[in-house]
Write a structure and sequence with these properties.
2 copies of one chain form a homodimer. Chain A is of the alpha+beta class. Chain A contains 5 helices and 5 strands. β5 of chain A pairs antiparallel with β5 of chain B, so a sheet runs across the interface. Chain A binds a DNA duplex through α1 and α3.
Chain lengths: ~140, ~140
DNA sequence: ATAATTGCAAACAGTTTGCCCCTAT
DNA sequence: ATAGGGGCAAACTGTTTGCAATTAT
């Protein structure tokens, strides 16, 4: 991987971000430094950096993906209303080994993912009392 | 919600599926019974059924959403290569309560999600020895 | 020198929507 | 009878790709 100015700035922006920005977010922030960069370049770099494990992609089918400068294991809280992703400020005690060996032997288990979901503080305040997550729960 | 023939068949197809089909998958299967149904109708129904908690949408993955006829809590294994989602054939011991009360008070935590990911048995066999998940791991 | 990378635009995939007709209640 | 739902196509959003020009190594 060549270290171009674009890649450098994208990476800096990302490493400085604590909010797990979307590709658009990154694009907007990078453009303040490199106004002529194209969205395609941002996508290509996010892809390459993800492939090389420099950053992490938080996937979200249907909506926008988000990118995480932290590649060491940690867990997230996801807002089901606005899509915001926050790091959990505490550890979650997760099982260290998979109980079923027959199951494990048949596939390659690479890792696991845990997250809480709900309403972030802002959406919670804005929606106090309203039923907004699907129809009848919350 | 009116019970139309289309909704009925979509629901039947889904309840019979153990593989967490995508909207396309559902469309293909439903078309064997109702060849004239439109993809839009399938999407609209999957959306409504999800909103009414009749089915579940599996959305934190790349690519297409998948749909799950089981709405009671259970966990998944996701293949990072083909996207397939399987139910885990065992229970995962997850934390029952969130350790940090200050954190909890500020937002509305609705639930949590846990999954293993890796290569399903088919992709594992096909890719034995190859490095296919991102660049240098596996 | 040359292979990787860029900007740009066009293409793509998945999903949603508007409109007008139809049908379950 | 009438509001909710269907079919169809067009629109939309997020992401990827082809190409010719540029740049890090």
């Amino acid at each position: 991987m060549r270290m171009t100015r674009q890649r450098q700035v994208i990476l800096e922006v990302l490493k400085r971000s604590k909010d797990h920005p979307t590709a658009d977010d990154v694009y907007d922030r990078v453009r303040k430094v490199l106004p002529k960069i194209s969205l395609g370049t941002v996508y290509r770099n996010l892809e390459n950096l993800t492939a090389d494990w420099v950053i992490d992609r938080i996937e979200n089918a249907g909506g926008q993906n988000r990118f995480d400068p932290t590649t060491t294991p940690h867990n997230h809280f996801r807002c089901v209303q606005c899509g915001r992703v926050e790091d959990l400020p505490f550890e979650v005690p997760l099982p260290e080994q998979i109980p079923d060996e027959t199951w494990t032997r048949e596939r390659k288990v690479i890792g696991s993912k845990f997250e809480y979901y709900g309403l972030c503080s802002e959406c919670y305040r804005l929606n106090a009392g309203k039923k907004i997550f699907r129809k009848e729960r919350l």
